[in-house]
Design a protein that fits this description.
Blueprint lengths: L12 H24 L11 H19 L6 E2 L6 E2 L21 H26 L4 H12 L2 H6 L3 H23 L2 H17 L4
Antiparallel strand pairs: 1-2
Length: 202
């Protein structure tokens, strides 16, 4: 079957929904097999950043936000450091709203689930915009979302948010370059804003 031309690309709601459901179902299986049931023994210091930096920072920041405070300053690290201004925490990224409604340890798992699913789905949409068929686009989305890089970044919310939003920017730029419509410009601006809020470099 020949690849679709860019002019013939269509986003069938039924097929996009099916792709999304496949990714939703595959994400916990991937995470369970790679991180929970992995055969490789843990290495010394492997999760040092997670336990000494990422988890305490997220717990402090979002606990303050759940209590209605804005965590401008962190008095518990290095005799006090700026907190909200530190882009590595990505407190204002929409994907991190789960930290405001669930305990930190559970929210981190939910954030990984949402992030990996978005990585796959947005990559599928980008590949469809390039004219790739649904089967190949799904394969590309799975390869991107469930790669070694995504597994290594899953415990770093800022990096995971960046990887999740990067395909959205490519997709938006492709849409805008083809049609030059306001909707494409808005989509591109939204993707750029999400990458800025993610904090980590793309």
């Amino acid at each position: 079957m020949s690849a679709l031309s860019p002019e013939d690309v269509k986003y069938s709601p039924g097929r996009v929904f099916l792709v999304a459901m496949i990714l939703v179902a595959a994400t916990p299986v991937y995470w369970l097999e790679t991180e929970i049931r992995g055969e490789r023994p843990p290495q010394a210091g492997e999760n040092e950043d997670l336990y000494q930096g990422v988890y305490p920072a997220l717990h402090y920041g979002f606990e303050r936000m759940r209590n209605g405070d804005i965590p401008l300053w962190n008095p518990h690290q290095a005799c006090g450091v700026p907190f909200l201004a530190d882009c590595n925490h990505s407190l204002l990224h929409p994907i991190n709203i789960v930290f405001c409604i669930a305990p930190t340890e559970r929210a981190m798992a939910l954030q990984v689930f949402v992030g990996l699913t978005l990585m796959g789905l947005l990559m599928v949409l980008f590949l469809r915009e390039l004219g790739v068929g649904y089967s190949a686009a799904l394969a590309g989305g799975v390869a991107y979302a469930f790669s070694g890089a995504s597994a290594s970044m899953a415990s770093r919310p800022a990096l995971l948010a960046t990887m999740a939003c990067s395909p959205m920017l490519f997709w938006a730029l492709r849409v805008y370059s083809r049609h030059w419509r306001m909707s494409g410009a808005v989509l591109t601006g939204l993707a750029l804003a999400l990458l800025v809020l993610a904090g980590a470099p793309a």
